[in-house]
Specification:
By secondary structure, the chain is mainly beta. It has a single domain, classed as Ubiquitin-like (UB roll), CATH 3.10.20.740. Helices cover 7% and strands 27% of the residues. The chain has one helix and seven strands. A five-stranded mixed β-sheet has the order 2-1-7-5-6, covered by helices on one side. It has a two-stranded antiparallel sheet with strand order 3-4. The longest helix is centred in the middle third of the chain and has 7 residues. The model has no long low-confidence stretch (mean pLDDT 79).
């Protein structure tokens, strides 16, 4: 799996596990769901306009580019939602 981002700071925060499309992903307490996706070589979705993978746009919760769904169907903004231990999100995208 190709790594898009590498964590450089704050590496001593407690670790948690988030499930992305059923696959465990390590995260740190305080990470957003978008951080979890990007540090594990994932994307949020593929553009419906044919211009490729999408990984968030504004990163402040003002646009609609980073929506993810929980396994119970609730939708959340990946850029502003803090990951919780055991949280399970679905993107509908197969792993790279």
């Amino acid at each position: 799996m190709k790594q898009q981002f590498r964590r450089l700071a704050e590496t001593t925060r407690a670790r948690i596990t988030v499930f992305v499309d059923g696959i465990p992903a390590d995260a740190l307490v305080g990470d957003t769901l978008l951080t979890v996706l990007l540090t594990h070589g994932r994307r949020v979705r593929t553009s419906e306009f044919g211009d490729g993978p999408r990984a968030g746009f504004c990163l402040i919760g003002a646009c609609q580019d980073c929506w993810v769904s929980l396994t119970d169907g609730r939708r959340l903004r990946g850029c502003t939602t803090i990951a919780q231990d055991g949280m399970s999100i679905v993107t509908g995208i197969t792993a790279p």
